[in-house]
Structures are given as C-alpha cells and as structure tokens.
C-alpha cells in the first residue's frame, strides 16, 4: 500500500508562451533546470513515452511515463506506467507579455517509507525543490530569450 503526495507550484516567465512551451516540451532538456532529474530519454519508436532517471542524495529511481494529453501552449499531462509511481500535468497560461507555468505532480511513496519519514518534511523538501526547478526554468528561458539559438 502506498501513500500519495501531491504538490503544485508555479512561476511567471517574462517570455512568450511559444518560447516557454518549446523549451518545456523538449523533455530531454529537463535536467538543465530540474535538480533531481539526471536524464530523460524519448524512444525513437514511441515519442509518447519517456524514460526518466531521478537521482537525489545517492538514491536513484527510474520510471517510464506516457503522455496522456498534450495541447501545444496549454498542457502536458502524464502518468508513469512502470517504476516510480507518479502522475501530473504542466500547464501554460498566456499573459501576453509573460507566461505562467504551473506544475502539479503526485507521487506514491511506499506505506512503510511514509511511516518512517515525516510526510510533512518530505513534502516540504520536494515542494521547495520543484519550486526552485521552476525558478531555474525561468532563468533558463530568459537566457534563451535574450540569446536565441
């Protein structure tokens, strides 16, 4: 039996939605701004799948995810299909001169681990990390905006 934890964080990026979308939807680039994500691989034969590796504090987890919904400039929704159980969505809101990026993620932790670890402590650590990830994404997007490829 597992306990599910859920977090939602957001950031405003002073860049057009098309740029923000193009950077985020290139999943293999995630390790550039996501601290715990070591790698993301997209199988050539099935671009709706992605293979993720997370590494934090010497603990490594991997999982395979499937895109459930993708609407350009609006949403990417996923669920894991094996490995670390997780699901979520990244939503994009166009504010004309800027974009709002909102990440909602849920993940399962084994019941015994949840009993050993304080869920509030774990939750705060994860939430502060993913908020910092979004802040790094904003900085990355602003750098790309000022120095296009």
UniProtKB/TrEMBL annotation:
The protein's matches in Pfam families, at most eight in alphabetical order, are given as: Polyketide_cyc
Q: InterPro entries under this entry?
A: COQ10_START (IPR005031), ORF3 (IPR047137), START-like_dom_sf (IPR023393)
Domain (Coenzyme Q-binding protein COQ10 START): give its ranges: 13-134
Highest taxon in the source lineage: Bacteria
SUPFAM superfamilies per UniProt: Bet v1-like
Task: Specify the protein name.
Answer: SRPBCC family protein
Highest classification ranks of the organism: Bacteria, Bacillati, Cyanobacteriota, Cyanophyceae, Oscillatoriophycideae
């Amino acid at each position: 039996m597992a306990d599910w934890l859920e977090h939602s964080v957001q950031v405003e990026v002073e860049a057009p939605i098309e740029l923000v979308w193009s950077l985020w939807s290139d999943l293999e680039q995630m390790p550039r701004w996501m601290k715990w994500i070591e790698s993301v691989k997209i199988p050539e034969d099935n671009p709706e799948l992605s293979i993720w590796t997370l590494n934090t504090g010497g603990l490594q987890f991997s999982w395979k995810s499937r895109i459930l919904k993708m609407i350009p400039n609006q949403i990417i929704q996923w669920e894991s299909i094996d490995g670390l159980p997780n699901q979520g969505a990244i939503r994009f809101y166009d504010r004309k001169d800027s974009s709002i990026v909102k990440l909602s993620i849920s993940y399962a932790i084994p019941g015994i681990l949840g009993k050993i670890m304080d869920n509030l402590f774990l939750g705060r650590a994860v939430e502060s990390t993913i908020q910092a990830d979004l802040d790094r994404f904003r900085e990355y997007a602003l750098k790309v905006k000022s120095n296009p490829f």
